[in-house]
Amino acid sequence: MRKIALTTMIVLGMIFVNLSFIYASDSDSLKTPYIKASDKNGEYHVRADGTPLYKKRFREVGNFHEGVAWVQDENKKFFHIDSTGNAIYKQRYQKVYNFVNGYAVVETDLYSFHIKKDGKPAYQRKFFKVRDFFEGLSAVENDNGDCFHIDTSGTPVYKKKYASIGDFHEGYAWVESNEDEKFFHIDRKGVPLYSNRYDEITDFRDSTATAKDGRITIFLSIKEDKTVQRLIILTPKK
After folding, report:
1. Domain range holding 204?
2. Relative to the CA of 226, which of 43, 92, 116, 177 has its CA 20 to 30 Å away?
3. Are the C-beta atoms of residues 148 and 140 closer than 8 Å to each other?
4. Is residue 217 part of a domain?
5. Alpha carbon of 35 to those of 28, 117, 147, 150: distances in Å?
6. Cβ atoms of 42 and 49 closer than 8 Å
7. Is residue 195 in some structural domain?
8. Residue 1 falls inside a structural domain
9. Cα–Cα distance measured from residue 134 to residue 106, given in angstroms and rounded to the nearest whole number
10. pLDDT tens digits along 26-70
């Protein structure tokens, strides 16, 4: 069974996210001067004053991100266009996503990988699933369910494989062990940040992450010397 799932737990008003693979949302759409629109002929983009950005129509369009937007044509194939409505490359894919930091996730019938804005693969390897690059590293999954991180050349940055992994934030990413299904954080070289293991865990934000161990909630704080300080709170029984 594929381990591509998104589940949430709410503990003490905090959201714990346990995920393998999700893609970046279109939250940046508020920053673009172009708006998605549709008529009887299909979907397209308009300027803020409502005038069409181009004459073409598509089955589906996404928001503009990093100067381009993904679209689906009449053959149900996906690619990216610029603000003139023209394709920025010749290739067509089963699915494409937003460009993030110069790379976009694309899917074929069998594989997933990253492309650059010329439409060509960023590297030779192919994976079952990949996510956007964060801090120069992407979370990927192989056909056998092993998860790990690669750099922009497609090269794994450490040897260990995990059951599920998160994106890198502030130099660290959470991972789930294949052995005991417990969670912890690693650095960019795959080295564990601490020896403790947890039932649930979050990304580091402003040097702080939250973990759960049974009924115990732990706040993890990275100090200036890179050691981790733990603040433990016991969750009351219901």
Report:
1. 6-20+31-234
2. 177
3. yes
4. yes
5. 12, 22, 36, 34
6. no
7. yes
8. no
9. 16
10. 444 445 689 999 999 999 999 999 999 999 999 999 999 999 999
